[in-house]
TrEMBL record:
Annotated catalysed reactions: aldehydo-D-ribose 5-phosphate = D-ribulose 5-phosphate
Originating organism: Coemansia spiralis
GO annotations of cellular component type: cytoplasm
UniProt protein name: Ribose-5-phosphate isomerase
Highest taxon, organism lineage: Eukaryota
The protein's Enzyme Commission number: 5.3.1.6
Enzyme class, first EC level, given as a word: isomerase
Pfam families: Rib_5-P_isom_A
CDD domains: RPI_A
Entry keywords, A to Z: Isomerase
GO MF assignments: ribose-5-phosphate isomerase activity
Family stated for the protein in its record: Belongs to the ribose 5-phosphate isomerase family.
Pathway(s) where this gene product acts: Carbohydrate degradation; pentose phosphate pathway; D-ribose 5-phosphate from D-ribulose 5-phosphate (non-oxidative stage): step 1/1
Any one GO BP annotation for this protein: pentose-phosphate shunt, non-oxidative branch
Length: 278
């Protein structure tokens, strides 16, 4: 009988299921996400390695300092993103990674995600964008209809330390009615819920001052309530000079695995894609 609590058990089952489905002996390049759920993915990778079920020359691309340590501790080879060749030259895709498995802070019905609770979303997005497939793993608390329903710590935004307070003021002046077309919601004009977003400089724990990311930047956590149009919000925030990366991953994930409270595992796909197949 496992001594893990329910949340940890659900993270572990989601991680194991996703690794088992996606990391077989034919996978040559794997993106490894960051956070506490990915620790269980690394545990499973180590087991599969011991069982000789991984590609003998598997290369793992880390998304953070923590992720690199997980790769090294599992006895796997880490590679830099820029050292990898394109997988399908001439195809129009620039992917260099077969599949990336990563955690999330919240995932909506279309598999848009909030990421960056661990402050690693810049590298996570770079690795996800270079992957043929992004697979998310999470516990049941992250499974949402609309972003902002459950995650109440705001959208993580990595910013240049040179101008963080100016960027904070600009983010707080964003207005919800700057949506792009195409998504119908109860309030057809609002990309997000709050009239006035609140941006808070993330503070370090057990060190005075702000969190400094692996890339030497700061993080603003921007509370804006429910996010009805993730792509519009992602684009809006990205337009602010000094913003380095936004922790909204719009339409990047192909699949999300959740460990449920009852011990079962659910695999979800973007809702609109399921409807198209019907
Ligand atoms: O985006 C991330 C780090 O930047 C993490 O994947 C996200 O915060 C989820 O973490 P956890 O698995 O610990 O809940």
């Amino acid at each position: 009988m496992s001594s893990l609590n329910l949340v940890e058990q659900s993270k572990r089952s989601a991680a194991f299921a996703a690794v088992d489905k996606h990391v077989g002996p034919t996978v040559r390049v794997l993106g490894v996400g960051s956070g506490s759920t990915v620790v269980y993915a690394a545990e499973r990778l180590l087991e599969l390695k011991r069982l000789n079920k991984l590609h003998p020359e598997l290369l793992c691309v880390p998304t953070s300092f923590q992720s690199k340590q997980l790769i090294v501790d599992a006895g796997l080879r880490a590679s830099d993103l820029d050292d990898l060749p394109e997988l399908d030259p001439g195809s129009g895709s620039f992917a260099s990674i077969d599949v990336t498995i990563d955690g999330a802070d919240e995932v909506d019905a279309e598999l848009n995600a909030i990421k960056g609770g661990g402050g690693a979303h810049l590298r996570e997005k770079l690795v996800a964008a270079a992957s043929r497939k992004l697979v998310l793993i999470a516990d049941y608390r992250k499974d949402s209809e609309v972003l902002g329903d459950k995650w109440d710590k705001g959208v993580p935004v990595e910013v240049s330390p040179l101008a963080w307070s100016t960027i904070k003021r600009q983010l707080e002046r964003m207005v919800p009615k700057s949506r792009v077309q195409g998504v119908s919601t109860a309030d057809a004009a609002a990309a997000f819920e709050f009239n006035h977003p609140i941006a808070v400089l993330r503070q370090a724990v057990r060190k005075a001052g702000p969190v400094v990311t692996d890339n030497g930047n700061f993080i603003l956590d921007v509370s804006m309530g429910k996010i009805y149009d993730p792509l519009a919000v992602e684009q809006l925030i990205k337009m602010v000079p000094g913003v380095i990366e936004v922790g909204i991953f719009s339409s990047m994930a192909a699949e999300a695995w959740f460990g449920n409270e009852d011990g079962s595992i659910a695999c979800r796909y973007p809702r609109s894609q399921i409807k198209k197949q019907d």
